[in-house]
Amino acid sequence: MAGICSRNLIPHLNRTAAPSPLSLQRAYGARCCSVTPENENKPKTPQLLRLAVSGVTELVRLFSASTKDRVDDELNTADRDGISVSDVTDVLMILESDYENAYFVTGNFTSAIYAEGCIFEDPTIRFRGKELYSRNLKLLVPFFDSPSIGLQKIEQGVNMETNFVLATWRLRTDLKLPWRPLISIDGSTFYELNEKFTIVRHTESWNVSALEAIGQIFTPSFGRPNYRAEHEKSS
Question: DSSP secondary-structure letter at 12?
C-alpha cells in the first residue's frame, strides 16, 4: 500500500500543470514556501467509516480510565512549562523536535503550542481539543511494535495572511495483534496557526485512502518474514 502514491500528500494545497510558482528558500534549516489552500477535489471518506472509527475510539477510551488520568497529568505538566513562541519559526523548531521524539508513536508532544480547541483531522476521524488528541495518542501507543516515524521535510509559509507549517513524514509500525499487521503510510500534516502563532488546526493527509488504511489493520503479515522490507523497498 505504501507504493500507492498518486494522491496529493499535501492537504489543502493546489498543484497545477504549469511550472510551479512556489518559491522555496532556507530558513533556520527548514524551508519557507507560499502555497494556495485546496478545498476542492478532496476525496471524501464515507460517513459510515468515520462513525465506525469514532465509535471504536470512544469504546477504547471508556475502558482506559487509568490512561486518561496519566495523560491529564502529563498534559498539565507540559502547559506549566510556560513555552512561548514569537513567530512561525519558533513553532517549526518545536514541531521538528517533537518529530525527533517520534510524537506520533510515543504520544509525547508539546501541547503548549496548540490551542485548547484545536481541530484535529485525518482521513478517518475529526474532533476538537488538544486534551482529547493527547488521550487518543496514548491509547494507541500500547498497540505499536517497533514503530518509526521519519520526518521527510518540514516547511513554513503564509497563505492569505494565515501562517502555517507543513511536515511530510513516513510511518511504519507493526501492531500487537495476533495476525501481526503492518501499518505503512506516507503522509503530511498541515499545521494552521492563528495570529498568536498557536496551532488551531492539525490536518493529516495520507498516500492511501481511509478504507485502505483500515484494511492494513486486518491484513495478516505472519508467514512473510520480509513483509516490512518489501514495503520499505516499494516506497
Answer: T
